[in-house]
Amino acid sequence: MRSxxxxxxxxxxxxxxxxxxxxxxxxxxxxxxxxxxxxSTLVGGNLENRSWEYIIWNYRIPKAxxxxxxxxxxxxSGLLMQTLFRNPLAGPFVLGISSGASLGAALLIMGSSxxxxxxxxxxxxxxxxxxxxxxxxxxxxxxxxVIAAKVKDTMALLIIGLMFGSITAAIxxxxxxxxxxxxxxxFIYWSFGSVGNLSWAQLSILLGIILIGILCSILSIxxxxxxxxxxxYARSLGVDLKRSRYLIIMATGLLxxxxxxxxxxxxxxxxxxxxxxxxxxSTTDHKILIPAxxxxxxxxxxxxxxxxxxxxxxxxxxxxxxxxxxxxxVVIWLLVRKRRMIF
Amino acid sequence: xxxxxxxxxxxxxxxxxxxxxxxxAVIAKNINFNVSEGELMAIVGINGIGKSxxxxxxxxxxxxxxxxIKIEQxxxxxxxxxxxxxxxxxVLTEPIASKNMSVLELIALGRQPYTNWLxxxxxxxxxxxxxxxxxxxxxxxxxxxxxxxxxxxxxxxxIARALAQDTTIILLDxxxxxxxxxxxxxxxxxxxSIAHRTKKTIVFTSHEIEMAIQLCDKMVLLxxxxxxxxxxxxxxxxxxxxxxxxxxxxxxxxxxxSFRIQK
Lengths: 343, 263
What we know:
Chain A: It is a multi-pass membrane protein. The complex is a heterodimer. Chain A has one domain (4-338): Orthogonal Bundle (ABC transporter involved in vitamin B12 uptake, BtuC). Chain A is 75% helix and 0% strand. By secondary structure, chain A is an all-alpha fold. Chain A is built from 15 helices and no strands. In chain B, helix 5 runs antiparallel to helix 6 (151-164). Chain B starts with a helix and ends with a strand. Chain B is 32% helix and 24% strand. Chain B is α/β, with parallel strands linked by helices. Chain B has a 6-stranded mixed sheet with strand order 6-7-8-3-9-10, with helices on both faces. Chain B has a 4-stranded antiparallel sheet with strand order 2-1-4-5, covered by helices on one side.
């Protein structure tokens, strides 16, 4: 409600930063392409070097879009969870959604040696991996939703999410103990996270799911704001608690589940971005916060990916490591500076 | 208590044979009272007798066990959620979930039952918010964050939020705990003036029996038996306060309307 002008300014700055980061992300990579050439490809010009054009259109741009979707999706799911669970430390990992995805991936990659018939079909590719981790995260989400209907306390739900995570981690370690080195390596590569392997077709599926997640969040804006007071107050304001909780949990699951399915488990974006956004936009109104975290998440993910690319060298660092290395100090800094995390 | 005055005031909250508590245990039963518009009523009693439970039951936070609660002649459970949100607003003891809200944002949330699906504030909403802010004298605090406020200030903000919700009835659970004597009196006098000026029914639970006797229009005494109800002066005449506490520590002095410590 306070001066809309300041928000407009913050949003213009955020959008400008997004454009800059997008440009930076696609002009840097393992192959050095001059910035002017990158730009002329984007506006539709023809390059003399066909391979550069190919790299930009079929590798770098899908990767940049993936980074945007991954960052936005995780950041929004983090915001939703922090509000729903009234806990500043909530994030997509807490509900066990990411663990569910890991379990799905682990079962497919490492379990396939136990159920060798499955391997015969040569199912082990990126798409089957995405499907397996989606199924994993949605099964966990379904479990959480069934329990949410019985347990009224959101703190209990949070702990149940953590327990799901522990169970998953246990199963994954048992699987890795029995599996061979090659499979284990494959699983570890998946768990590094990556935004680089999506085709345009996969990208459009991810976009579709994330748009549904954003739509559910927009429909929940009023309930989310009421939840800031606590559930009893929200009910006294006429909010349908059950319906709103389902809608918000569903949105979280769609966002975090689909991202983890396609890009692997990516840490800290979901937790840190909502807090960083609150640093620059001083409001708790979700009408403002939702678009802000979407843009901020995209910016941060593009930056992390640019760093992970390790410009002009062939090596690509695991993106999960980059987000953790950048994200963990940010969370510590926020805690130290503000003494406590408020949301 | 002239008959004419009673006729003029509309009954807003009627409670008959109410039993409250949880499935496993009845906390209090045989509760009967009624309050009209513009009246301030206190619910008093010793610790653990069910004051908060009663208030939360009235506010539809928890279900009643039996009996009836009528809001403007209609049973509480027959109200759809949104309609009820326009009838009853709450000020509870539990801390609000997000202290990062500004005072203005928090008070504006009181308008939720009336706003559109995005929660955009209309001109009327802004007027009501402004009225609530000026009635609670929060003009200077309105851009502060809630974590910067003292307990007394936050309590005023929460009352302003309930006021902005513009309901027939405002229920407050122990609005004066954690406050010093001065601020206790300030809050209670404020509640009284709000009730009389805005014609809202205000019901609160309290341990401040002596203040309630002086300020309230009506009182309910929870005593595990017949829960006497009435105007404070009538309750004194009936000797209702003498039975409120076990007789070994304090006694009630009917002439001054206060409790004395037994030496």
